[in-house]
Amino acid sequence: MSGFGVLAGGGVVWRDGDDAVDLTGLGDELAQPSLDALLSLGRDGWRQAVDAARAHDGPRLRGPALRLPFTVADYVDFYSSLGHATNMGRMFRPGAEPLHPNWRHLPVGYHGRAGTVVVSGTDVRRPRGQLHGADGGNPEYAPTRRLDVELELGFVVGVPSTPGEPVPADRFVDHVFGIVLVNDWSARDIQAWEYVPLGPFLGKSFQTSISAWVTPIALLDERRVPAPEQEPPVLPYLADGRDFALDIDLETGLNGAVVSRSNARSLYWTMPQQLAHATSNGASLRTGDLMATGTISGDTRGSEGSLIELTRNGAEPLQLPDGSERRFLEDGDEVVLRGRAGAIELGEVRGRVLPAN
Amino acid sequence: MSGFGVLAGGGVVWRDGDDAVDLTGLGDELAQPSLDALLSLGRDGWRQAVDAARAHDGPRLRGPALRLPFTVADYVDFYSSLGHATNMGRMFRPGAEPLHPNWRHLPVGYHGRAGTVVVSGTDVRRPRGQLHGADGGNPEYAPTRRLDVELELGFVVGVPSTPGEPVPADRFVDHVFGIVLVNDWSARDIQAWEYVPLGPFLGKSFQTSISAWVTPIALLDERRVPAPEQEPPVLPYLADGRDFALDIDLETGLNGAVVSRSNARSLYWTMPQQLAHATSNGASLRTGDLMATGTISGDTRGSEGSLIELTRNGAEPLQLPDGSERRFLEDGDEVVLRGRAGAIELGEVRGRVLPAN
Questions:
Q1: CB–CB contact B235 A130 (8 Å)
Q2: Which of A196, A232, B101, B326 is most buried, by the most CB atoms less than 10 A from its CB?
Q3: ipTM of the shown complex
């Protein structure tokens, strides 16, 4: 894995391969309980930090305990994968056009709960919530029966922006420090009942897990590839950033078996487009803003980034190597998301399902 | 006005009437750039702070410059007013049942952008955004033509909660420090095009204004009244907190004229119910979480908390005393929200519309 992390007891560490290196002796920005100070430095400071980390011959740490690497300011979740949006539309609006009219014109997104973003390795408690009654009967308050994963990438804002001033796509690299892997845990039954008309709330807000390692954008230059063509053409404020798809192989592991493989380059909307859209109304950025892509799904079977897609809403259960079947997550299940950009491995996102309280 | 605020240069102040009193000499929690330390003290500490503030004979300040009084952790916006939800449903789904099926079963809500919550007195820049093309044509990126206000109350969380553990309604007063007035500025045309299926995003995220004074909940004990009856009965996890409607008179001023009057006691869902619902999936609270009621509208003409309702989506313009008409806000307009709970006046929320950049 490659990137910066933070020791559970505080102090920034760097990892590029098997071992982590303690950087706390290298400067004030690195002897901190989070990456926040490093994030706010900007491009020159980020480059110097990477150079210094690579050159540093500090104590090696194998598998150190790590904490949430930065203070999450606002958390935005997009819906940027054509495969995912198409799969969801086909399942829930069969016979209709799978994409809503706005989908190809703007990266649809919403705000999630920043306060429940946690670091990889944190167990997830099966949430209770209000569920629609069967056959239109009265709702009930019960543990979710449709707990799911969402495999996503997220980018982490370092440099704030000025209120009232949109950040164009070509300024992405001036504001964004790095990326993380994201598991946007979802309770499909809670979400299905609550989300009209104001969107997801408690179906998502119980927990979102991110990797402990933040991989600097600058390390991914060689993995930048052209994004898929957009049709119809988008408005000028969204037209840039099409050279910023990321060739990152992704996989979802469930109890040790790989159940899904995809690649982030398939995303219809790139991260610079997401940033340009999120600030197009003048909303300002803060250090620590986290913006995630939404579930990443390819267009073939086995490339879906969620169980609801992989199992066609439970109609086609996954067969696991131990002989069991899964429609949705069961108590005790362990999910591990992984990403690899050539020689650069992203931090994994690991989490085990605990039974409801 | 009554409550705690923070001087623009730092330092907690108390106000109960015309003059503010500087409290910075009274202790470490009060010589701060925000109320955050005070918020985290809990009920005993809050009571002592109010008592000390009332007894303190410090320097008087008339009309001091104030800053955002606390660090907003997560911002949640509900949709709790029966009048508002009914008005919106009638306008946008004429002939259909105005309320969605979930509305009487749970307080519908969503996360907004915490990073663009600002203090009263901050101007609001007319946002640009993607607007649906006329007659189904291509969308455009242009300044909103439907800038609106939303008159709301918000409560401010002081004491955090434990992840995985819901906070029942009867623990509301252990976690919640006080209330503010909220203007949830809205760009109706941006919102209308973007919000399917994940809810409001850029139509709201450009700015949310709150009062500079946070009024402690404890000061409002005499204004607690029974909430309106709920039919059908709600699930047990939402059944408490019905003795916690707040008898607070509210008004919206536009360029010096009062254009709307209502009372917060009409809200269908109380604040303790909102808190219980927001944590019912185990999502934890942080110091500084802000949860707003959603637009508060009564059931009579002139009690609506937004222009889109007051003008019936622009069909019945407001006649202002200067002879002009308003469907939505124009550049230069000044909005002032006010609230009064008997002898207790809440901090106002004032803002003027600046032209688009």
A1: yes
A2: B326
A3: 0.97
Decide if domain B75-354 falls under CATH 3.90.850.10.
Answer: yes
Chain A and chain B share a number of CB contacts under 8 A equal to 187
Give the tens place of pLDDT for each residue, B170-227. 999 999 999 999 999 999 999 999 999 999 999 999 999 999 999 999 999 999 999 9
Q: Structural domain boundaries of chain A?
A: 3-62, 75-354
Task: Provide the shortest C-alpha distance from residue A125 to chain B (in Å).
Answer: 6
Q: Which of B205, B230, B273, B274 to mutate to test the interface with A (most CBs of A within 10 A)?
A: B205
Note the pLDDT tens digit of each residue in A179-235: 999 999 999 999 999 999 999 999 999 999 999 999 999 999 999 999 999 999 999
Contact A264, A250 (CB under 8 A): yes
Contact (CB, 8 A) for A109 and A76:
yes
Q: What is the pLDDT of residues B9-34, one digit of tens each?
A: 999 999 998 899 999 988 888 889 99
Query: Chain B contacts of A197, Cβ < 8 Å?
Result: 100, 108, 195, 199
A283 contacts on B by Cβ (under 8 Å): 113, 115-116, 202, 205-206
**Whether A175 is catalytic:** no
